[in-house]
Fold:
Amino acid sequence: MDDFNSETDSDYTSYWRDWFISSRGNEYFCEIDEEYLTDRFNLTGLNTEVQYYQYALDLVTDVFDLDCDDDMREQIEKSARHLYGLVHARYIVTTRGLAKMLEKYKKGDFGKCPRVMCEHQPLLPMGLSDNPNVKPVKLYCSKCEDIYNPKSSRHASIDGAYFGTSFHNILFQVYPALVPPKSIRRYEPRVFGFRVHAAAALQRWQDARREELKDRLHKLKIDSGFEDDDDGEREDEEEEDEAGDMDVVATNP
Structure:
């Protein structure tokens, strides 16, 4: 926004969307067509979601001409960014929106999967909720089918609702040829070149999960139902003591 401080209000509003898209931290967004923004049907229900809705819409659509103080302008600017994000979630599941996001996906604008076995598979932004102010944006890898946090703190602060929970799935349904083969390669732990025995690894995992479950049940004061090794040893000792007592009684009529 600092780049526009020396410009007039009309110059500033004329380039609002260009400024927003080119600003650092907004690389995940694509530019929404003006025709889409000016169609009231596409904005249904957003007037109750955005403060200063009409002023924010005027700013986004380059017709803002209100003479207001800096504080008011800052509030309208914040609302404009929020409005653009909410409309963006709707736009990117349209034919035009999918095509624009596809180009960004092919260029790797959203980053590459950090998993070594995925071999730099491009990622897609997605939300864990369609409601704003719930979860920040995540990145989806179509190869390992897992999600990751953005590397940049600027991207990590973007609301996930600005991309929605369906966009990444819709894109691969529309462009099925882009679906990569699923990654079946897995890291195999080795010791001096020898693979760690699978049964031993499984047993360690099971023991760890059992101890976690026992701890949770103990905190809730619930009988775990597990038989501890120490308890078994104590029971064996008690049985041996009882057998010894019986022998003493038998030898003393």
Notes: Residues 229-251 form the longest helix (23 residues).
